[in-house]
Amino acid sequence: MAKLKLLDIRCIRNQEIGGDEPYLKVRNNKVWSSNDMKAGAVVSLRSIQPIPFKEEVEVTLMEADFRDDCLGTGTITSDEIGQGQREINFTEEGAHYQLIYEVLA
Fold this sequence. Notes:
The chain has one domain: Immunoglobulin-like (Sandwich). Helices cover 0% and strands 56% of the residues. The chain has strands at 2-13, 22-26, 29-33, 42-44, 51-53, 56-63, 69-77, 86-90, 96-104. A hairpin with a 5-residue loop joins strand 6 and strand 7.
């Protein structure tokens, strides 16, 4: 079984003036959130325990709002085991975030 190890999330461009309130979901379960993230910010996610999965797992970045906005979704697969640090770019709704992760055996 593969394990998703979340490493960092980087804000390259925030969606809202003044900053975002992003949150990350893995398999539709919230695993991380922030009340204030602006361009240039980097947050370590290394304290989150590796998340086991079989063939693939979906990761979604949302922005808390009156009606939450989806900033993007990515699929991570077990084929990525042993490929080192990888990234997903979330670029919907005018934002740009990078999720840095690794897939472990």
